[in-house]
């Protein structure tokens, strides 16, 4: 199949390639915003379990990917945080969710970007003398530190995954993706850091519709495109959640 | 004035016109509500945005226009969207003028601890973007209650919790006092209304000297409600 052929698939067609157990999955989104809603629901419905999840942070309480922890589907999380959802906190504190180490958010983002760019790793000065303190983390091997240009840096290996689940605004049929506002976050880097990336989008348009300079992820990076909620449905899903948790004020209905 | 409101209002005075600002979660976020008259700043969000504006009305909220706490926001004229790696680079490389962060502990060496406590023998909850902010930002301000619930000082000689940043703090603001960080000693600059030097001495573990200009915190009537993170 060409890298430019039609990649539009049903959720079942696109996602059934993921092993039932033990898959390593990278997932885009930022504290629950702009995450692949329908892919997450599919993982839960199909009981895809013992997942190693690479994610910026666990997500948003009571919403979206938090349901993965609630259903006990994630074995290990590789992230910058544990506690952005009570579901992940609960699993972690009862030893049901493995967290070997967390990275500063910028370090995690660059490790993923290094994976995306085909690099072996990166040199990061952030956290040297803090994160390598004895007793802080039970690391399988100590963090390697080298000095370059007079600056002490961690040697941080690149992060990649066999499977990527990302969210974009729209895709053309060949898999060119266009992102919308802060929905970009880590989605584009993660898409490129994985061997088989599924893009969940709100709209699928004919090839040639997306302005070339507006393509955030070029088609050859994407393996499958699935249609998720529409933009309107997504806005409504988040609006209702924000109203529920008091992040939005209900508007008084006008006659 | 409520202790937390006092801290937030005093912290807001550190924001100067034209600055690029990142406000941490909790108390610091509220500082955007008390900008001094004439002060206009641009707010950065870790998730990849410069130019965060006020909360929208419910009907205008969009799933793809959010801040780092995944709250609905608006974008102001001149706003910019960037990918997460660039957003973190903005923090690490020093493009931010100032950040105001909540803290669990601070100490006289300018260290701040704000990302981990021990629960069930495990460090929890996580670093997020705080370490990158402390590493790169020119001015790092810590906001915290002066003591814990048992009355123990959180302004310490040496932090006991895992650090977020080493020697990065410029200023510490509590409900009792404002300190600048000197050379392994704090400099007491201001006291809250009604708080005496003796009281501050009694509840502060850190070594500090008293500035010649030591005075009461000043609050202008015009510290206005501005835009939210």
Side by side, the strands of the main sheet of chain B go: 4-3-2-1-5-10-12-13-14-15
Q: Please report which band the strand proportion of chain B falls in: under 5%, 5-15%, 15-25%, 25-35%, 35-45% or over 45%.
A: 25-35%
N-to-C span of chain B:
23 Å
Number of helices of chain B: 5
Report the sheet-strand fraction of chain A: 15-25%
Q: Which whole number gives the mean pLDDT of chain B?
A: 94
CATH topology annotation of the largest domain in chain A: Glutaconate Coenzyme A-transferase
Shape of chain B: globular
Chart the SSEs and their pairings.
The complex is a heterodimer of chains A (about 260) and B (about 230).
Chain A: H1 11-15, E1 24-27, H2 37-45, E2 51-55, H3 66-70, E3 74-78, H4 86-93, H5 105-117, E4 121-124, E5 145-148, E6 151-157, E7 161-172, E8 177-178, H6 187-193, E9 194-205, E10 224-227, H7 231-244
Parallel strand pairs in A: 1-2, 1-7, 2-3, 7-9, 9-10
Antiparallel strand pairs in A: 4-6, 5-6, 7-8
Chain B: H1 3-12, E1 20-23, H2 27-30, E2 42-45, E3 49-53, E4 74-81, H3 84-92, E5 98-102, E6 105-107, E7 112-113, E8 116-119, E9 122-125, H4 130-136, E10 139-143, E11 155-156, E12 169-173, E13 177-181, E14 186-191, H5 197-202, E15 208-216
Parallel strand pairs in B: 1-2, 1-5, 5-10, 6-11, 10-12, 14-15
Antiparallel strand pairs in B: 2-3, 3-4, 6-7, 8-9, 12-13, 13-14
Helix pairs in contact in B: 3-4
